[in-house]
Amino acid sequence: MRLHYVSERRDTAYWRDVTASHPPVVTERLEKWSRKFPSREDFEPFPLGLAHVQEQLYVPVLNGLGLLSQDLARAEMARDPKLRQRARETHASLVAEYSRAAEKCLPHRAWLESLHKETVA
């Protein structure tokens, strides 16, 4: 759908061309999702029920681009307590996973120094 290419950038010919050439489905869905939280009904069913074009992949992208209405997200969570609980559990799980991974990583300075040692050797 090219949602990843929705941007405020207009500083180069590339970004001006991308902005001018969004397919109608992009602008139609963005307009719809400014009033309504994305839902499964917004998408054609994908073969075998795979999630490749469904809302669970679009919500994080919309949020990351600053295009997801926080008011709509709050209303969606308030409407469905199970969804809110699942979101909280998922968030807590990801924070714990990332914290464990970060503990195993080199500090930034040590990592940079290790790169320098590899290029000198």
TrEMBL record:
Taxonomic superkingdom: Bacteria
InterPro entries tied to this protein: FAD/NAD-bd_sf
Stated name of the protein: Tryptophan halogenase
Organism (species): Rubellimicrobium mesophilum DSM 19309
